[in-house]
Automatic annotation (TrEMBL):
Region (Disordered): 107-168
Chain intervals with Basic and acidic residues compositional bias: 145-157
Protein name as annotated: Separase
Pfam families linked to this entry: DUF4518 (PF15008)
Polar residues bias spans: 159-168
Tree of life domain: Eukaryota
Residue ranges crossing the lipid bilayer per the database entry: none
């Protein structure tokens, strides 16, 4: 079984045609475990289609980056809301292909559970499966209130995230995209629901290094679009609502003259970063290969570190080091920025590209 002659062939072929020759040749070698070396891009696409058994395997290829998926969705005018990670974009692409095939949109999206792999091009997709069954579901009302304090590095900042869940009885109810109809019993027994079918909530899991690269690629592309020279690039818009209302920013200037700037609150944080980048016409080139790190606190805050080179138009002017604190919002499950600390180091010479040592990998639920 392969994607060749499957209902997804046209969509997969169109996505592959957006990749450059180097990426296609690498994917072809990966799909055949280096047993076949294609001569050109057309042959590489045919090899990938023939030797890739399903979409799960296809989307696990590392060469299919979040940026590539974003550009593909943009080509077909599929909107991307805020910071969509790679898993969410995969779901959107699969939904698009289902609609193009004249089938119903995917109600249970593909979930990739990424683990460390010896092959740099591929990771094994393992979704968290919910127990799907038809039967009777008893519903009981519960109320819980929890408050967690998350302390950001070098600052005593607390995030209070109260959450509450209530099971509401109604004649019609949707659970995880599945319509649930209530049967009202005529006797004195406890009310029950018919579940047709009922699925446990799906949790997408992404590996920390992929999450970090996706975020850095999204963030710095968005920041670079502030400059007129990069305004034509496809990407998201730098705006206030990617920050929490109590977020903060620290900027440190290191060079011939040193200084620092600080801001507290969503609007001030956004304004400080935007005004600083615009005033110095800064462009960022993050080292996505070996210049990123991710660490997770016990309370769920993910700290992302990234370094790279600083540019002013066509001139190299220095390097940067940035630390970002991200917290997943319980309201819409979107990751928002809690804080940003960035060092802007002026340098006219650069012996080697700045990098960071490897760190321990972990899984992030999205």
């Amino acid at each position: 079984m392969s994607l060749l002659h499957s209902i997804y062939e046209a969509g997969v072929r169109g996505l592959l045609e957006m990749l450059d020759s180097e990426a296609l040749l690498a994917l072809a070698r990966t799909s055949t475990n280096n047993r076949i070396l294609p001569l050109n891009s057309s042959e590489a696409i045919e090899i990938i289609l023939l030797h890739t058994p399903d979409l799960g395997r296809f989307f696990s290829y590392r060469r299919l980056s979040a940026q590539t998926l974003f550009l593909y969705l943009h080509k077909y005018q599929v909107p991307s809301m805020g910071f969509a990670n790679k898993n969410q974009m995969i779901m959107a692409v699969k939904d698009l292909w289902e609609k193009q095939c004249g089938r119903k949109a995917v109600s249970k999206p593909t979930t990739l559970k990424r683990r460390a792999s010896s092959d740099p091009e591929i990771e094994s997709p393992k979704g968290r499966k919910g127990n799907v069954s038809s039967g009777r579901l008893r519903v009981a009302s519960t109320n819980t209130d929890k408050t967690e304090d998350i302390t950001s590095t070098d600052r005593n900042k607390s995030i209070h995230s109260p959450s509450s869940t209530n099971a509401v009885r109604s004649l019609n109810r949707t659970v995880s995209g599945t319509q649930v109809e209530k049967n009202i019993a005529n006797d004195d027994t406890e009310s029950e629901f018919d579940v047709t079918p009922f699925a446990q909530p799906i949790v997408s899991v992404i590996r920390s290094d992929d999450f970090t690269r996706d975020f850095c690629e999204w963030y710095f592309n968005m920041v670079n679009r502030l400059q007129p020279v990069c305004a034509h690039h496809i990407g998201d818009t730098f705006r206030e609502d990617i920050f929490y209302s109590n977020s903060f920013a620290d900027i440190y200037f290191i060079g011939h003259s040193c200084g620092e700037k600080h801001a507290q609150g969503r609007d001030n944080t956004y304004a400080l970063l935007r005004e600083t980048f615009m005033a110095y016409s800064l462009l960022f080139s993050p080292n996505l290969e070996n210049g990123t790190q991710a660490f997770k606190s016990d309370h769920g805050l993910v700290k992302i570190c990234c370094c790279g080179t600083l540019h002013h138009k066509n001139a190299l002017v220095g390097i940067f080091e940035q630390e970002s604190g991200l917290v997943c919002s319980p309201v819409d499950r979107a990751w928002k920025i809690m804080y940003i600390k960035i060092n802007l180091k002026q340098s006219n010479t650069l012996c080697e590209r700045p990098s960071l040592p490897p760190c321990q990998l972990f899984e992030i639920e999205t």
